[in-house]
Amino acid sequence: MKLLVATRNRGKTAEMEHLLDGTGWRVVDMSAIGQDIEIVEDGKTFEENARKKAEAAAKVWKMWTLADDSGLEIDALGGEPGIHSARLCGPNATDNDRTRMILDKIIAVPDEHRTARFCCVMCLIDPAGHKRIFEGVCHGRIAHHARGTTGFGYDPVFVPKGYSRTFAELGLEVKNRFSHRAKAMQQVVEYLKTRVRKPDKHR
Ligand code: IMP
User: What is the C-alpha separation between 4 and 24, in angstroms, rounded?
Assistant: First the structure.
């Protein structure tokens, strides 16, 4: 069965493909579908944005659709960048510019106050239009310097709780075991497994 993931972020699609491997579901994203829709992420919460993205895509393609909204909340910045994570530093900024900016903002903050969490909210819509919400959180802290080369976004500065290396150093295989997206996705996968069509015995 096909699941449309309402994103153009190849990093996210790759993580979802990995998590759905062997379940009978095939992931397609909006670039694979060859068409695009403009989604304005102006919600006040991760959930509002996830719903908006999923609804916009499901309205056009009317198939199983999944959208997520995610971001990094840094305690020393009062929870920022949060829902603004993707747009920090303006529309033309790179991941590098954004990580540099948060490192600069908390340059004087000591280790014990560099706590942060990645949050992810997913909205799944079935072909009949029913919606379900799933959430995942991954706690950690912000490193003093960017380290590592895998992943995307803030991975080079996020050290998950219980580890000393950043997500970008740990690699996708480790990250996918307990990241915010993996935690939300594991719940989605459990649900989707119950929806795979069983072969018809009488045919
Ligand atoms: P979204 O595509 O609107 O959900 O944007 C989320 C933004 O939060 C991304 O562009 C990244 O900057 C950041 N982000 C979310 N999840 C992750 C992650 O797993 N690693 C690194 N950065 C992330």
Answer: 14
Condensed to tens digits (0 to 9), the pLDDT of residues 84-116 reads 999 898 889 999 999 999 999 999 999 999 999
Asked whether residue 203 carries a pLDDT value surpassing 50, the answer given is: no
CA distances from 26 to 19, 21, 33, 60, 82 (A): 11, 8, 13, 19, 30
Q: How far apart are CA 25 and CA 21, in angstroms?
A: 8
Whole-prediction pTM: 0.90
Give CA–CA dist 38/145, Å, rounded: 35
Q: Would you say the CB of residue 176 lies under 6 angstroms from ligand 1?
A: no
Is the distance from the beta carbon of residue 64 to the nearest atom of ligand 1 less than 6 Å? Answer: no
Residue 117 β-bridge partners: 73, 139
80, 137, 154, best to mutate for ligand 1 pocket (most atoms within 8 Å of CB): 154
Domains along the chain?
2-195 (3.90.950.10)
Residues 161 and 146: their CA atoms lie apart, in Å, by: 17
